[in-house]
Fold this protein.
Amino acid sequence: MSGRITQGPEVTADIEETCDVCVIGSGAGGGVLAAGLVEAGLDVVMLEAGGYHTRRDFDLHEQTAFPMLYQARGTRATADLSISVLQGRSVGGGTTINWTTCFRTPERILSHWQKVHGIEGLDSETLRPHFEAVEERLHIQTWPEAQANANNRRLLEGCRKLGYEAAPLRRNVKGCANSGFCGMGCPVDGKQSQHVTSIPDAVAAGMRLYSDVEVRTLSQEGGRIATVDGVVMQRGADKDTVHRVKVRPKVVALCGGAINSPMVLLRSGLDPNKRVGRRTFLHPVVALAGVYDEVISPYFGAPQSIGSHHFIDRGADKYGIFLEAAPMHPMLTASASGEFGPELGDLMSRLAHVSGLISLHVDGLLPGDEGGTVTLRSDGRPNIDYPVSERLADAMRFSHDVLARIHFAAGARQVASLHTQPVLMRSSDDVELLARATYGAQRHAIFSAHQMGGCAMGPDPETSVVDATLRHHTLRNLFVVDGSVLPTALGVNPSETIYGLAHRARTHVAAAV
Amino acid sequence: MAPSRRLFLKAGLAGGALLTVGGVGLALQPGVLGPVPALLQVLDATTWSVTAAVARRMCPATGPAADAIDVASRVDAQLAKMHPGDAAEVVQGLILLENGLAGVILGGGPRAFTASSPAAQDARLRAWQTSSLAVLRKAYKAIRGLVVTAYFSHPETYAFTGYPGPPDFGQSRAPAIQLAQLPEPAAEPPPVEEVPG
């Protein structure tokens, strides 16, 4: 039996559906889960808030991609706008626009979850078959070091000269054109995003997918979710149409990702223990721009192919960090800079010679680090509060120092921070200038490409939202299957962890039908 | 401590009050930079003009002119697709930025932004960028973000940055380079069919 993809613009009346499982969200969690449920013979309806776009729509211009493929048209941020939150919103979710880097969940993180958060039955050996399955389906393999672009090679060379560990990354690509535009939708379907893998699998086997449908509330009757209520959105806009969607499922799988899944539960009033939206983690990112004599073309070539975990463990009471490269297309780069006028023009006119290296901070592991909080605003928008603590600001200072030294070791002629008033360095001797700068919210650019937490898993309903099988503690036909269930950040790019957890959740969700 | 959205709204309301008071004597001759497009969606003539004035200062003079890119209208188009609440906050910020009395109190001089000299406009933008008031830094960031992304996402600015534009895989509706034009090192290696495990 073949299913169907119904897109918002073709909807002319309200929609009512019944099914075994309603999957809300089509990203790393929803896609993998839905494919497994359909394979098991279940009747699945999937609702996705974003549009359905394919490679034919990906013209690789930022002015097209960000409004089309990102939450809030690329403008999502924390409440004080100090952290830009890059998060996908289309069929395929974050997998349509991520930079393809894949890691299995580190053993140290699983061990931390067991020891600190009481999560049993989630170890490397348990997860191994699930990771193996998704690695095969999504073609996750190591990207050859020889094919690293000039931007990533700066990271590799700088780290090696300084004696820091650095290694090639694994990517979920097959037939990659090495163009560098992963963040704008893969133009050749080389990236094995959910919209070209699991979702076509599921639709071919009977799943009914509705794009442009934002779920507003889950309604409960007798301790179970009875209906899923949503609205058809205007294509490409954060605005409703007049058409409503109502699904009556036996089981609901909430897979909207960190921030959006908590929002659905908050709008529905399903937060008896006040845990929803708490412990939201962002892997806060800081970046430094290095200017080189040679052409870097930081917009071409696989965006991330080298990573360093040399500083992942910096000792007690210190944030661990990991280092990667970031593609630097004009709009994203200009947005990240704090400059305007001539200073902005000076940076942008040298873009071809700029390398962008980033440091990601591992939040949620230190005692007392509660990360951020997602709450509901009166008009339905998410309010993301993320205080940058003194400890985190200190780690950002350390990151700046490390990134600057790597740039100079790799041959940079000049290095600039992304402070409101940038710190300009012309040699490694100038790195000490960074010590005089201030760090933290609204002091320099901070980003997040990894959103985690907000519906944490754990054994105790007082401190978590779902159990280790991702089943809601009290609403027994509700599962949350996405990055929001992570009790801490990971210290690695999160997509494969979400794929693996979703693959593992298939049997639990199916059994609940 | 991070400012709350409510605080920003309060500042915006204060700005509205200042607008009223500022009409007496201080917010002299607020400018409307013409010609203002007839079919604005979210901005009005004043806030469109403020946006255009901000764009002239923020976008590099050495690149294509902000007016030629029509940055203010591109910002208006973006606001029209955003959540109405987000768009309303940006408009509040633009109104406050324009207000001359607010300029006296918050930094940047006594004249309406659009009626100020380029140097005074830069001073007001810097005052907001580095303000001790988080709400002003936030408003600056929101306005700056919309303006510079509207400018640098336009293909006509690509040449200024040395960016050749994206390769053409057959989808492009805007100017694009051909695959053969991809500069080193991106031109090699060739597409990867199978990556050895």
Summary: DSSP finds twelve helices and 24 strands in chain A.
